[in-house]
């Protein structure tokens, strides 16, 4: 394992504003009836190490993601991050991380994953029921380097003022753990819609911040196939999603998340489908898991905004462990498009859409889709530019309807 020296100076002094309280295991996060998604917590092994496996693809036929960077970013001090790489089997190990709350970033040429994890001390087998995972299983969202750059630069968090100080606490060891530790299978509603919820880590007061202006995108084969935004509680819905393997990428003013999952048809829906339709669905359903009744809800605890700087550096330095290296982006101008302007954007849209990423960081979006000054509208200026660029490049990104999270 290689440790990176923390030479990146996070914008607006993020490192001074995050602390954890390992001695207090209160939790303010809950999914459904107090459920805490299992992929968000892991216990250290007997030697005090954190181990895991990174994979990509359908759960039943997933492939090991070799040579993938895995970075732990302690929210108590984001500059003190540690990174390693997976071996040929997609496995990795990080020796002796401190108990606490971390931003997890996994990135390679095959895809990316990023969300919050709670690292707990080693425990005995009999001390918990159900037992949290002792080996992280990370599912990547399939996104090549070009798509990853566009997603991060165009939708990334915007910080124009000093962030509020928060104390993030570990998930309670008494929390109800969802069965699937990887969030690999998610059951669609009987209507075929996908419902989910994104949350920030809970503070020491047991509260989570609002998630206004967070964009949610589903990707397949490095192409965006659906997008929407969340409400203030982080809920979102995507209509009539076909069963299959997807990557979810969410980014905005509050933070960033990405992971892979398999969408399976509803058990209730199968009882209402005609026999011919059931036959057509059979092969897909087998690939994505026969039993869908016990699928956990699609709930993810996103990484707070400081972690986005690590994600940005990763997509720029995929071939080396340089996630602590400062990254500079050129900025042309700062502008915000109105909803009407965005609606009328075509392939000729361009101009200045960069913006200052919190002052000293230097733009955050560069010449290919910036997001400075867009905290209230989730980066629509950068989005319009990206859509225009992709329309010209024929990448398949397309120009689907986008829900605009304009604030009153």
Descriptors:
408 residues; Immunoglobulin-like; six-stranded mixed β-sheet; 14% helix; globular; disordered N terminus; disordered C terminus; Cna protein B-type domain protein; signal
What do you see in this structure?
This protein is an alpha/beta fold and 408 residues long. It has a domain of 252 residues: Sandwich (Immunoglobulin-like). 14% of the residues lie in helices and 27% in strands. It is built from six helices and 22 strands. The strands form six sheets. Strands 14, 16, 17, 19, 20 and 22 form a six-stranded mixed beta sheet that branches. A hairpin with a 2-residue loop joins strand 16 and strand 17. The N and C termini lie far apart (49 Å). Keywords: Signal. This is Cna protein B-type domain protein. It comes from Rosistilla oblonga.
């Amino acid at each position: 394992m290689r440790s990176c020296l923390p030479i990146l100076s996070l914008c607006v002094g993020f490192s001074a504003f995050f602390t954890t309280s390992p001695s207090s295991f209160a939790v303010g996060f809950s999914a459904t009836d107090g459920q805490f998604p299992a992929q968000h917590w892991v216990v250290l092994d007997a030697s005090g190490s954190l181990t895991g496996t990174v994979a990509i693809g359908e759960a039943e036929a997933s492939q090991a993601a070799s040579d993938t960077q895995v970075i732990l970013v302690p929210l108590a001090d984001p500059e003190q991050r540690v990174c390693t790489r997976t071996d040929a089997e997609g496995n990795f190990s990080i020796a002796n991380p401190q108990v606490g709350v971390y931003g997890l970033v996994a990135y390679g040429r095959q895809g990316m994953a990023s969300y919050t994890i709670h690292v707990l001390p080693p425990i005995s087998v009999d001390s918990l029921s159900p037992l949290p995972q002792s080996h992280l299983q990370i599912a990547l969202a399939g996104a090549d380097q070009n798509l990853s750059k566009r997603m991060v630069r165009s939708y990334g968090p915007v910080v124009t003022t000093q962030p509020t100080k928060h104390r993030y606490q570990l998930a309670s060891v008494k929390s109800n753990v969802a069965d699937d530790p990887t969030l690999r299978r998610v059951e669609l509603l009987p209507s075929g819609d996908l419902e989910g919820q994104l949350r920030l880590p809970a503070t020491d007061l047991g509260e989570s911040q609002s998630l206004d202006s967070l964009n949610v995108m589903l990707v397949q084969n490095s192409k965006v196939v659906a997008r929407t935004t969340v409400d203030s509680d982080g809920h979102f819905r995507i209509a009539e999603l076909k069963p299959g393997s997807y990557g979810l990428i969410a980014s905005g003013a509050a933070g960033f998340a990405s992971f892979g999952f398999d969408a399976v048809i509803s058990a209730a829906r199968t009882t209402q489908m005609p026999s011919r339709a059931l036959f057509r669905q059979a092969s897909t359903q087998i690939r994505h898991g026969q039993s869908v009744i016990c699928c956990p809800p699609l709930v993810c605890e996103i990484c707070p905004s400081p972690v986005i700087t690590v994600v940005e550096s990763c997509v720029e330095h995929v071939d080396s462990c340089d996630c602590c290296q400062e990254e500079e982006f050129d900025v042309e101008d700062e502008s915000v498009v109105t909803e009407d302007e965005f609606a009328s954007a075509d392939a000729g849209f361009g101009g200045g859409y960069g913006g200052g990423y919190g002052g000293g960081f230097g733009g955050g979006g560069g010449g290919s889709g910036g997001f400075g000054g867009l905290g209230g509208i989730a980066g629509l200026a950068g989005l319009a530019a990206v859509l225009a660029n992709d329309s010209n490049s024929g990448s398949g990104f397309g120009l689907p309807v986008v829900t605009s999270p304009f604030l009153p």
